[in-house]
Amino acid sequence: xxxxxxxxxxxxxxxxxxxxxxxxxxxxxxxxxxxxxxxxxxxxxxxxxxxxxxxxxxxxxxxxxxxxxxxxxxxxxxxxxxxxxxxxxxxxxxxxxxxxxxxxxxxxxxxxxxxxxxxxxxxxxxxxxxxxxxxxxxxxxxxxxxxxxxxxxxxxxxxxxxxxxxxxxxxxxxxxxxxxxxxxxxxxxxxxxxxxxxxxxxxxxxxxxxxxxxxxxxxxxxxxxxxxxxxxxxxxxxxxxxxxxxxxxxxxxxxxxxxxxxxxxxxxxxxxxxxxxxxxxxxxxxxxxxxxxxxxxxxxxxxxxxxxxxxxxxxxxxxxxxxxxxxxxxxxxxxxxxxxxxxxxxxxxxxxxxxxxxxxxxxxxxxxxxxxxxxxxxxxxxxxxxxxxxxxxxxxxxxxxxxxxxxxxxxxxxxxxxxxxxxxxxxxxxxxxxxxxxxxxxxxxxxxxxxxxxxxxxxxxxxxxxxxxxxxxxxxxxxxxxxxxxxxxxxxxxxxxxxxxxxxxxxxxxxxxxxxxxxxxxxxxxxxxxxxxxxxxxxxxxxxxxxxxxxxxxxxxxxxxxxxxxxxxxxxxxxxxxxxxx
Length: 582
Ligand SMILES: Nc1ncnc2c1ncn2[C@@H]1O[C@H](COP(=O)(O)OP(=O)(O)OP(=O)(O)O)[C@@H](O)[C@H]1O
Known about the structure:
GO terms for molecular function: ATP binding; DNA binding. By secondary structure, the chain is an alpha/beta fold. The protein has four domains: about 5-205, Beta-Lactamase (2-Layer Sandwich); about 225-390, Rossmann fold (3-Layer(aba) Sandwich); about 390-505, Helicase, Ruva Protein, domain 3; about 505-580, no CATH class. The protein contains 24 helices and 16 strands. The strands form four sheets. A seven-stranded antiparallel sheet has the order 2-1-7-6-3-4-5, sandwiched between helices. Strands 9-10-13-8-14 form a five-stranded parallel sheet. A two-stranded antiparallel ribbon has the order 11-12. Strand 3 and strand 4 (about 115-120) form a beta hairpin. Helix 8 crosses helix 9 (about 255-260). It is globular. The chain starts with a helix and ends with a helix. It binds adenosine-5'-triphosphate.
């Protein structure tokens, strides 16, 4: 180590970004492990395969870099090689390694063949006591074996204050060492030293400012601040493990889930989205597993359920924290066994060939602490966790998103003419705060667009969205956050404005649709039964008439949308969709 460490430190100081630092660290680790292997009894039978740096501060992946031993041997050691090979080939250690690294705070060895995991430090045990061995899940075992890895060493990557901000995994192949720890325990101390030396660089350096990834329908905008995260998502999209997308409401999790599906090998299969916010607890199991006619009172026809509908594809389960404890047990069993039974058809066990993406906007770890979310399920779904930043954290994207949303609204309304966002309007948007994230931005753009249309006339071929339109749209928003009465006046004005714009009467009865909008919004925010309590109609829940009432009110709101030629907002669409599935 006498020469290697100073050389590593020098290379780390010369690194200007995370990927470079990860490259030199992995190179040093693989070389050190190679030396140890050469001096061991496995020199002839074993070979090193690859190393991966996982940076996941706050328990969410931020960056990921892999280096293959072959690339190290056969190619010039330039960071460029890493960029080409990096995230594309990154292969992952399992969630259980991460869990064990966090729990034990030390390096560990995985014997893939035996399916066991051994932490290297056992502080409370005497030397004579047997070594602590933890079972390693079978699916992770299979995955590692499929890429020839028989032995893995996982080292904690410690950030400021000793907090574990990531891990480094080294994989090797040595059939002769199955049932033994290979070289990992002997070489663990120098390997950990390398990781500790590199840690401040790995956790502190920014990501390489790579060219923004290609955009598409589902991810039309990627700013520099999101580019490295999209690189990670691109790798994760191709895995079959469960992906956990967390992030504030409206940040774009559902669309990203769809993007991941489109970038996976399942892209030709179905993509289904189950939003638990709009499914009452008693129907959650049924919606997931499906039911046979007569399975319970009210099951008047068969329902295949979301799992059957997503066979061969991807199922996005959003708002996972809304899952009842009973349904949590059902989902855990499904994720562990990959089998399930349709309600009312206990005799038939079915296999779920489904990739799961889970969405949440709450801190699930906190939910585990409160006892509302099962810890074992949390670890089962926390395999590939990614936190989608709020729009305020990716301000470099605001004007590009605004332009994209504007073009989309315009195409819906008036495909012939052109539309542009004035530079002043873009600046105004960039300066704003966006607690509602992309959803709020989309609403503002939609509103500003209507204002611009009214002002400039629909016949106008070149429409410009100016600062004044944005300002006015924002002021409606501010008002609606403040006084209810003022917001009602705004709604009334918008109603009248719409009638003027179309130059034909807009029946006042359509104003009754407000009840539908209110209910759908409340359902989205607090769930169906609570929504009725919130608006003073608990009696409807007690008499089990609330769903009928919801259906009627949603219909009225939809009628208004149809009359003015606008798509129903997501709250209405979700309330309606949940009704349809019943
Ligand atoms: N790719 C996109 N193209 C156009 N609009 C988008 C895109 N992604 C997000 N939006 C806008 O942001 C809104 C919210 O997106 P999405 O439903 O994906 O967010 P979310 O994080 O899943 O929200 P929630 O947590 O509330 O379910 C969309 O309804 C749309 O208005």
